[in-house]
């Protein structure tokens, strides 16, 4: 079924094509490593130097491959890239992994070398041509050398103190960008919507009306909190990270916090729905206290007192207003 795709099968590639493919792959990987290094340089300079060194290693192997191509096939290198070959390992676009954490980026880089080595070893097993098999084996060995070089570069540029410091910085940025705004949103959504939802519930004893009020309150609060968080600080001076990320974290968690005790009112029976909603509120408030203790290092007793007491007061206010 060759006519279905324009990509070439690996078995159809000549040795010149394989060399050209290896050259373009090494060039792409070097660019990816340099983009990682540039992105990490300001906050993680030691890891950035590791990626600079890995990019230089890729350049060295590319030059060796070019020399081999020149010696065997001349100066003109065929234009063939990963996306031109069916079944060839693909690289995730860098712009999709830029938002990943520091450790995940390191893992992505290690996976790049491992995938390339596995591909060349598997390709060598599938070919019957001795010269091509030897060529693929050499390329697999080169990828293994890349992995060894990466480990040596990490040891040279990234000692345990530097790694620990960068991990601490990454954790702090994660907390400031995602956990703190998300926690604030969850608290706001869980607590601030208690009064309108339970006031409506006890005033009307109509589950559908209560659900609609809860849905409107949750979505409205989420939009408001999201825009407020994003507009409050651009993150440049405070180091809290992207305002868009913080706004998303705050807005989504605010909405979820309110929906948690609005969704039970989809149950037609009023008292069943209210009992379930109260249980959900209890779980939500203790979950918030646990998150504060786990990620923000707030003492559990103080976190529980602040969240549970505040939530109980708002809940009571809603019930009293609705019952009146």
TrEMBL record:
Keyword field contains Endoplasmic reticulum: no
UniProt cross-references to InterPro entries, sorted A to Z: Ccc1_fam, Ferritin-like, Ferritin-like_SF, Rr_diiron-bd_dom, UCP035918_rubreryth/DUF125
PANTHER family listed in its UniProt record: BLR7895 PROTEIN, RUBRERYTHRIN SUBFAMILY
Full protein name: Rubrerythrin
GO cellular component terms, A-Z: endomembrane system
Domain of life: Bacteria
Keywords assigned: Membrane, Transmembrane, Transmembrane helix
Pfam families reported for this sequence: Rubrerythrin, VIT1
Membrane topology classification: Multi-pass membrane protein
CDD domains: CCC1_like_1 (cd02437), Ferritin_like_AB (cd01045)
Protein's GO biological process: intracellular manganese ion homeostasis
Keyword Lipid metabolism listed: no
GO molecular function: manganese ion transmembrane transporter activity; metal ion binding; oxidoreductase activity
Chain ranges of the Rubrerythrin diiron-binding domain: 17-153
Subcellular location: Endomembrane system
Species, as recorded: Marinovum algicola
Membrane-traversing stretches: 182-202, 208-227, 248-267, 273-291, 303-322
């Amino acid at each position: 079924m060759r006519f279905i795709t324009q990509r070439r099968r690996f078995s159809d590639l000549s040795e010149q094509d394989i060399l050209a493919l290896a050259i373009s792959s090494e060039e792409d990987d070097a660019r990816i490593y340099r983009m990682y290094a540039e992105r990490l340089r300001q906050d993680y300079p030691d890891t950035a130097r590791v990626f600079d060194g890995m990019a230089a290693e890729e350049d060295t192997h590319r030059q060796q491959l070019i020399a081999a191509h020149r010696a065997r096939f001349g100066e003109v290198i065929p234009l063939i890239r990963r996306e031109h070959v069916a079944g060839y390992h693909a690289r995730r676009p860098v712009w999709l992994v830029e938002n990943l954490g520091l450790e995940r980026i390191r893992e992505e880089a290690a996976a790049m070398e491992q995938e390339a080595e596995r591909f060349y070893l598997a390709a060598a097993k599938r070919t019957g041509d001795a010269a091509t098999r030897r060529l693929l084996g050499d390329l697999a060995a080169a990828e293994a050398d890349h992995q060894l070089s990466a480990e040596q570069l990490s040891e040279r540029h990234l000692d345990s103190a530097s790694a620990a410091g960068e991990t601490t910085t990454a954790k702090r940025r994660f907390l400031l960008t995602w956990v703190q705004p998300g926690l604030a949103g969850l608290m706001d959504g869980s607590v601030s919507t208690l009064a309108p939802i339970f006031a409506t519930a006890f005033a009307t004893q109509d589950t559908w009306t209560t659900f609609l009020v809860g849905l409107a309150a949750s979505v409205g609060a989420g939009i408001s909190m999201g825009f407020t968080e994003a507009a409050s600080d651009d993150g440049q001076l405070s180091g809290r990270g992207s305002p868009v990320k913080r706004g998303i974290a705050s807005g989504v968690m605010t909405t979820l916090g309110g929906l948690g005790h609005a969704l039970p009112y989809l149950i037609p029976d009023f008292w069943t729905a209210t009992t379930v909603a109260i249980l959900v509120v209890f779980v939500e408030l203790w979950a918030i206290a646990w998150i504060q203790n786990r990620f923000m290092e707030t003492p559990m007793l103080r976190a529980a007192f602040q969240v549970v007491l505040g939530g109980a007061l708002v809940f009571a206010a809603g019930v009293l207003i609705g019952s009146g």
